[in-house]
Every structure is written in C-alpha cells, then in structure tokens.
Amino acid sequence: MLQPSDLETVRESYDRVADAYVELAMGRLEPEPWLRAVLAAFAESVRGLGPVLDVGCGPGTVTAHLTGLGLDASGVDLSPRMVEHARRQYPDLRFSVASATELDLAPASLGGVLGWWSLFNLPREALPGVLAAFAEALVPGGQALVGTHVGEGDIARTEGYGGLPVSWTTHLYRPEELTGMLVDAGLEVVADLRLPAQPPSLRPQVLLAARRPA
Ligand SMILES: C[S@@+](CC[C@H](N)C(=O)[O-])C[C@H]1O[C@@H](n2cnc3c(N)ncnc32)[C@H](O)[C@@H]1O
C-alpha cells in the first residue's frame, strides 16, 4: 500500500536533483529521433480530441514539445522544484504539483495522457490504479503513452543526476507486463516500440501507446 512517506521521500529526492537534471539537459529530445517520432505519432492521433496531460512532466520538455506539435498540453509533477523549472522555462504553459496517484481526473476529460519515464518510482501495486485512472480520464479514442525502463526486479537508487544523493526505487517492467496492465485498465495497445540499451540509457526502454476504445 502506498504510504504518504513513500511519496515524500521520492519528492525530496527529485527536488534535490532537479537543478542537475536541467543543467545536464536530461530528457532532452534533440538527440532522440525515435522518441520524437513517437511523440509526433501520438500528437497526430490525439489532436483535436481534448487536452493532454503530461504526468511526471519534470522540467516540462515533453509538455512543451507537444504544445509545439499543436496540442493543448499541460504538465503535473510530484516535485515542486521540477515544476519551478518547467514554469521558468515555459512561462506560457500550465504546470502544477501533484502525485500521479492523487490526480482526481474527471472522466472522459482528456484527449491524451502521458507517463513519460515518470511512473517507474510508483510502488508496483500502485501502477494498475494509476493506469485505470488514466484510462477513465480519456475520451473514447484518446490515448495514453507510457515510456519506461525494461527489465526484471527493482533497483534501489542512492545516487541520482549529478551524483547527488537520492532515495528511490526504480521498478523495472517487462513490456508484456505493462501491456497486460494497460489492457486490464480497459485500453487497446496501438503501438509498442522497444529501444535497446544504448548510452545514455543503461537499460532497454519501451514505449507503449494505448487507446480508449470508441
Ligand atoms: C526521470 S524524470 C522524467 C521527467 C520528464 N518526464 C522528462 O522526460 O524529462 C521522473 C519524473 O517523475 C516525477 N515523479 C516521480 N514520481 C511521481 C509521482 N508519483 N507523481 C508525479 N510525478 C512523479 C519526478 O518528480 C520526475 O520529475
């Protein structure tokens, strides 16, 4: 069961590394043509269906990219310091502080929702509920896009971006496991992209897009 103290520990850690995350340009999209291709396909699929929420938006890179692709995108993140960076870098966009587990999303209110390398810190047992909330928040035909690290088991991290001390667990997933969770949430998987381990990623990565049936 998710304890408030678990979220607090993760929040404090991301607050501590947020400046380094931005200084090191982590999560930037320029060197990532496959990631940009996925975001372009996602944008094309959900454009006109409603607002898009980037959950775990960090400093707002993907939120801003999707806005540039013509979406009404906003971001939410657990870490206030990440959100400060997002607001500073993209003052015209909307960002707020909240946990993926406490979003209180209105049913059928979103054209798209993302968990872009931001759901792997959730306790394993919390992820199905978060994906179910995503599914319920989508309009029919709307899509969820989830990207994360592939593997088995959990990694206790004590050092984060910039070598700073952190305390969080990275939960690794097999793509089939994540697909199963999206299907259990009531979504249809429409795309499944696997990326091999290659610098700067130490592990393979997966991106899954899943649609709420019409
Ligand atoms: C690896 S960073 C990715 C940030 C951003 N998506 C990007 O690609 O640059 C992970 C982000 O997830 C956020 N995060 C972790 N747990 C979260 C939760 N329970 N709810 C919302 N955001 C969370 C962190 O604060 C951090 O900003």
From TrEMBL:
The keyword Transferase applies. Keywords: Methyltransferase, Transferase. It comes from the Bacteria. It holds the Pfam family Methyltransf_25. One of its GO terms (biological process) is methylation. Residues 52-142 form the Methyltransferase domain. InterPro entries: Methyltransf_25 (IPR041698), SAM-dependent_MTases_sf (IPR029063). The keyword Transferase applies. Coiled coil: none annotated. SUPFAM superfamilies: S-adenosyl-L-methionine-dependent methyltransferases. GO terms for molecular function: methyltransferase activity. This is Methyltransferase family protein. It comes from Pseudonocardia kunmingensis. The lineage of its organism: Bacteria, Bacillati, Actinomycetota, Actinomycetes, Pseudonocardiales.
